[in-house]
Task: inverse folding
């Protein structure tokens, strides 16, 4: 029996022993977990499962929306019409991902306003990676190659998440992230075939982003507070450290093809582990950025809050139009 699902902090009932009676709803939930099936919005679910998913899905949605800023900053300065069109499409896709994810979170009984208010109040987290600046065009390529690459590595297992709406949103998102990763690699490859100044620009951007990208996967397994329970609920399938390792192993060869050096003197093949060893991550920097003190945290949040306030008239107009349509429909029906 899947008793671990009951053994949680945060208002959960105590774990039932194997021979203890559980409610029919809990028994059904446990059976779905055992069969690795799907929970849908109308199904009963433990409150802690709901809370965990609202937390993770909303953090993910906020990351996509805040994540539009570092690259959006370059739309007006892209080096050609082709690159501008690609970048516009990519940034728009990230906005779309945010919207699917907010919708998935809303199926769990939380409103979009509540989620957005928590972000704007600085109470909700979003990915640490989007608090770093993009001073050159090469940073945009590196975001596509490394940040989207890391996002795909982390998100493919989420396509098998036990919560149906999240899993289905992730399938579409992962397809789009693959295009994003390739366009980033392609932009960097073009620069690497260019002048020495362009190659230097790419290398410097890789130097800036490598370590923050490794941090994206979250704290090491021993410090990951949510992993154990998320594994039991089929939300997480591969641990933070294992995903980070898979990412490093994939990127080493891509970096060689590109002709850039990954800024880690400890990066070397370990024949015994059949994987690359890599240097120590600066977890102090990670927590500093997560807790609001990264290079761009204040700017990112202020930009988002201003965009929301500036867009108030659009929301008001949409509501007024919907009310007008509803009134007309009522008149016609009368
Ligand atoms: N940044 O116990 P764990 C993208 C927090 S989308 C900030 O290991 P969990 C697309 C964590 O929330 C990128 N906070 O937690 C794109 C928790 O704090 P809490 C976003 C972090 O949930 C590309 C605490 O640390 N992707 O890139 C981070 O089991 C280009 C303890 O951690 C997702 O959100 C971090 N990096 O595992 C867009 C994927 N890592 O909540 C635009 C879905 C950890 O207790 C341009 N999320 N924390 O206050 C996940 O897979 C998981 O939530 C993890 C963390 C793996 C992020």
Result:
């Amino acid at each position: 029996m899947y008793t671990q699902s009951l053994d949680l902090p945060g208002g959960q009932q105590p774990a039932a022993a194997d021979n203890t009676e559980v409610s029919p709803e809990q028994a059904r939930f446990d059976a779905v977990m055992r069969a690795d099936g799907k929970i849908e919005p109308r199904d009963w679910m433990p409150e802690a499962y709901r809370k965990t998913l609202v937390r993770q899905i909303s953090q993910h949605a906020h990351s996509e929306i805040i994540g539009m800023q570092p690259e959006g900053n370059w739309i007006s300065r892209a080096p050609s019409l082709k690159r501008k069109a690609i970048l516009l499409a990519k940034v728009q896709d990230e906005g779309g991902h945010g919207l699917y994810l907010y919708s998935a979170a809303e199926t769990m009984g939380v409103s979009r306003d509540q989620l957005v208010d928590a972000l704007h109040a600085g109470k909700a987290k979003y990915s640490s990676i989007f608090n770093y600046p993009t001073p050159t065009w090469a940073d945009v390529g590196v975001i596509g190659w490394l940040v989207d690459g890391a996002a795909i590595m982390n998100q493919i297992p989420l396509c098998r998440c036990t919560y149906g709406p999240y899993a289905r949103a992730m399938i579409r998102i992962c397809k789009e992230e693959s295009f994003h990763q390739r366009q980033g690699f392609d932009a960097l490859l073009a620069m690497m075939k260019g002048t020495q100044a362009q190659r230097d620009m790419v290398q410097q951007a890789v130097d800036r982003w490598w370590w923050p990208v490794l941090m994206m996967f979250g704290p090491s397994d021993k410090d990951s507070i949510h992993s154990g329970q998320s594994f039991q609920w089929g939300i997480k399938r591969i641990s933070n450290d294992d995903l980070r390792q898979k990412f490093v192993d994939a990127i080493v060869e891509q970096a060689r093809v590109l002709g850039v050096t990954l800024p880690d003197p400890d990066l070397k093949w370990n024949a015994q582990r059949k994987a690359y060893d890599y240097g120590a991550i600066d977890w102090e920097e990670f927590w500093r950025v997560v807790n609001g003190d990264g290079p761009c945290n204040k700017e990112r949040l202020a930009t988002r809050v201003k965009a929301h306030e500036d867009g108030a008239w659009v929301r008001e107009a949409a509501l007024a139009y919907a009310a007008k349509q509803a009134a007309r429909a009522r008149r016609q029906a009368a």
In short: Residues 90 and 128 are 20 Å apart (CA to CA). Residues 1-17 have pLDDT under 50 and may be disordered. DSSP finds 13 helices and two strands in the chain. The longest strand covers residues 268-270.
